[in-house]
Hints:
Guanyltransferase; Nucleotide-diphossugar_trans; Mannose-1P_guanyltransferase; alpha/beta; NTP_transferase_dom
Amino acid sequence: MTGAQHPHPTxxxxxxGGQGSRLRPYTDDRPKPMVEIPGTGTxxxxxxxxxxxxxxxxxxVVSCGHLAGVLQDWLADAPLPVRVTTVxxxxxxxxxxxxxxxxxxxxxxxxxxxxxxGDIWTRFPLRDMAAFHHERDAxxxxxxxxxxxxxxxxxxxxxxxxxxxxxxxxxxxxxNAGVYVFSAAFTDLLPTRGDHERTTFxxxxxxxxxxxxxxxxxxxxxxxxxxxxxxxxxxxxxxxxR
Length: 242
């Protein structure tokens, strides 16, 4: 990666080809990113595109797969805040292969780019993440979230006395939040087929060229995997006045 690259990407890839089997029946007739968050009237990908536009992105490549036509029809009719190109995998390429295939349609291949999974509903300053990535001269930077554990936790003392019950505490571990900043050179490091998280990322980590950006305190983040996630997201957005 060269230090001359602009730290704030203006192009992005959205991976929107998943089956979304855990979200059935919502995904019986639409791909996962086309599922609406209750009360908003907007599918997940609509929220993502608005967020990317707010963060300075002008061009987005959407990688389609499952029920691609439904997503393409919506993109063709919706008033979009960015220029959108769609690509469709004709055969399964894996997460890394799909990312590389989509990146081939980015309008500025010599510039850095963002990527996000199509089932992530989040809001945080992408420009700050891009600056973090740039300062560390990384090839790739992934956002890190600390999700809440879905169960209640029990706190005890050294003698085994129960001290407290904590409802849905934050996890002690950071997880991959499904949002990335990549250098222009990163595209060539991706596998044509396969999973970059098992190949490219471990190699970059060993070489200290992979960075992790913890989401800022209070930043909203949720992966929409199940019907319960939809319900919880709607509640949280309502509480925030959105």
